[in-house]
Amino acid sequence: MKRFLFSFTLFTTISLSSCHKNPNIAPTLPNTDSSAQTQLTAINGHDRTPLTPRLVKYGSRTLSYDTQGRLIKAVDAYQERTYEYTSNELSCVIKQDGKVQAILKYTLNAKGRCEKIWLNRTIYDGYDGKILSNDWHNYLPIYDLKGRLSQIQRENSLNLPSLRYEFSYNTDNNLVEIRFLENNKLSKRQLYSYDKPYTGALQVDKDPLNPSLPQTSGPVPFETYLLDLYVDVFGQFRQHLVRSYQEEIAGKQLANYYFTYKLGDNGYVMAQDAYNGNTNVYKSTLLFEYKTPFLVNPNL
Fold it and tell me: N or C: less crowded end of the chain, CB within 10 Å?
């Protein structure tokens, strides 16, 4: 998903504004930390009650839910994702231009935690649109003693290089680094911070989305699909809003951004402004919209 949808989940959709903004904008800080908010939550990332707001707009993408409050579709002009559920599996079909690009299947344990990822990858001929290849690969998620995702390994690599993602967290249980290794050699790093470049109390993230993964070196970066942004099957990656993001390859900086937020009265993010971390130049705004279930679906 490389339409400037590079790697960070909260800055990976279409830019919604290009006007100039003050790079020294003071962040909104109504939600400070508390002992209750910093505890790791339930197995599905964050507990949801019948009144928990659901994300219905993420940039230009619209999300819809079934009568049980489960995500069933995420659509924008670029891509359509459709979700289906069984007792031990969550599947996601990803389409672009009406064609299936990938199919994700998450095998779940009794607590709803992902135990295996299956990824079907389809590559089309750029000239006539015919299918050049269609194959399945499976990946093993590994969790640490605190139940946090610590690694994802590709299992059936065939003639492809071995792939591994490694996840590191700070003492606040916030994801601070993703390392991507090919054939056991470090290829890329993604770095996250929650207390800089500007000061102030940490801001609680009331609906933490999953991170996007660094792209592989192959012709089609299918592995970026592995962690769907919206599904709660890997546990929680952070407690707080990300303030800065950097990406490196071979020790060289590819990206450097910092973010400020506008929060609603309920503490959920309404807008995220992104700035170039080197120049302080405003880049874009990502809008969020949340609704409670009875507004998402009157039958819920």
Answer: C
**Sequence letter at residue 188:** K
Contact 78, 72 (CB under 8 A): no
Measured distance CA(299)–CA(67) in Å, rounded: 6
**Is 222 strand, coil or helix?**
helix
Q: Are strands 244-249 and 185-193 parallel, antiparallel or unpaired?
A: antiparallel
Gap between the Cα atoms of 123 and 179, Å rounded: 26
Q: What domain range is 253 assigned to?
A: 31-43+67-257
| Residue 26 falls inside a structural domain | no
Q: Based on the structure, what is the number of domains in the chain?
A: 1
Q: How many CB atoms lie within 10 A of CB 161?
A: 15
Q: Give the CATH number for residue 193.
A: 2.40.160
How far is it, in rounded angstroms, from Cα 68 to Cα 297?
Answer: 9
d(CA 230, CA 55): 9
| pLDDT tens sequence across 198-244 | 888 999 999 999 998 887 665 556 778 899 999 999 999 999 999 99
Distance from C-alpha of 260 to C-alpha of 242, rounded to nearest angstrom: 9
For residue 293, the surrounding DSSP H or E stretch is helix 293-296
Is the separation of the CB atoms in 91 and 83 below 8 Å? Answer: yes
CA dist 251 and 217 (Å) reads 16
Residue appearing with tokens 């995702």: 149
Give per-residue pLDDT as tens, 102-136: 999 999 999 999 999 999 888 776 677 777 777 88
Distances (CA, A) of 117 to 25, 170, 175, 200, 233: 41, 26, 21, 38, 11
126 assigned to some structural domain = yes
